[in-house]
Amino acid sequence: MPAVQANATNTVALWPGLAASAAAYLKRLNVPRRLLVPLLLTSVVGGWVGAILLLKTPQRTFLHLIPWLLLSGTVLFAFGNKIRTVAGKAAVVDDLSSASWRAIAFISTGELLVATYGGYFGAGIGFMILAMLTALGMRDIHAMGAIRTLLAAVINAAAVLTFIATGAVFWHHCLVMILGSLAGGWFGAHYAQKADPRKVRAVVIAIGLAMSAYYFVTVR
Predict the structure, then answer these.
(1) Which residues of 103-139 are buried (b: 16+ CB within 10 A; e: fewer)?
(2) pLDDT band at residue 157 under the 50/70/90 scheme
(3) Which long-range CB contacts under 8 A does 195-198 form with residues at least 24 apart?
(4) Alpha carbons 171 and 198: distance in angstroms, whole number
(5) For residue 41, what pLDDT band results from cuts at 50, 70 and 90?
(6) Dist. CA 106–CA 126, nearest whole Å
(7) Based on the number of CB atoms within 10 Å of its own CB, is 212 exposed (0-12), middle (13-18) or buried (19 or more)?
C-alpha cells in the first residue's frame, strides 16, 4: 500500500482503541480545567495541521522519515528526565492545580508541536506525549498515561476526520483493524494500570527501539 494512505488508515483504525483506552484511564485523570482546555484546543489544531502535512508529503519521503520519527520519540521519552535536569528547568507540572499561566502557555505550545507530530505520524504519538510530560517533570507513569491517552485520542480525532474527508482511508482493511484496536485499547489500558511503572517504562522504550531498528533495516 502507499505509505501515506497506509498511515492514514492506521490512524483511523486505531482511534476507537485510543478512545476505549482513554475511557479506561478517566478515573486517573486529574487535570484542572484551566490547563485541560488549552491542551485540548492545541491538540485539535495540531492534529489537523499534521494530517494536512501528511497528505501533502511525497510517499518516498514519508517512508524515509518513519524510523527517524520513531527513534526521536523513543529517545526523548528515555532521556526526558536528564534533558530537564540539563536545561535547569523546575518541574512545572508536578502540581497541576498551581501551574502558572506562563507554565500553561509553555505546556500548550509544546502540546501544539506534539499534536502536529501526532497528526502527521500517529504511530509514535504516545512516545512524544510521554516525552513532553517527562521533560516537564511528571513522574507518575499512570497519571501520565491518563493525560497521554486523552490527548492522543483528541489529536487523532482531528486527523481521522481529515483523512476520512479526503478519501485517504482503505476501508476494507480499516474495519478489520478496528476490532483489534478496540480490544487492545480497553484491555491494554486496564493491565497497564496494574503493572510496575518501571517495567512499563522499560517495555515502552524497548518497543520504540525495536520498531525504529526494524524500519531502519527495511526502508531503503
Answers:
(1) bbebbbebbbebbbbbbbbbbbbbbbbbbbbbbbbbe
(2) very high
(3) 197/140, 197/141, 197/142
(4) 38
(5) very high
(6) 20
(7) buried
Phi, psi of 168 (to 5 degrees): -95, 15
Residue 86 — pLDDT band, cuts 50, 70, 90?
low
140 with 196: CB under 8 angstroms?
A: no
> If we measure between CA atoms, which residue out of 115, 158, 142, 178 comes closest to residue 26?
142
User: What's the CA gap between 95 and 13, in Å, rounded?
Assistant: 35
Distance CA 2, CA 55 (A): 11
Report DSSP letters for 141-209, one per residue: HHHHHHHHHHHHHHHHHHHHHHHHHTT---HHHHHHHHHHHHHHHHHHHHHHHHS-HHHHHHHHHHHHH
**Which residues lie below 8 Å from residue 41, measured CB to CB, with a gap of 6+?**
108
For residue 5, the surrounding DSSP H or E stretch is helix 3-25
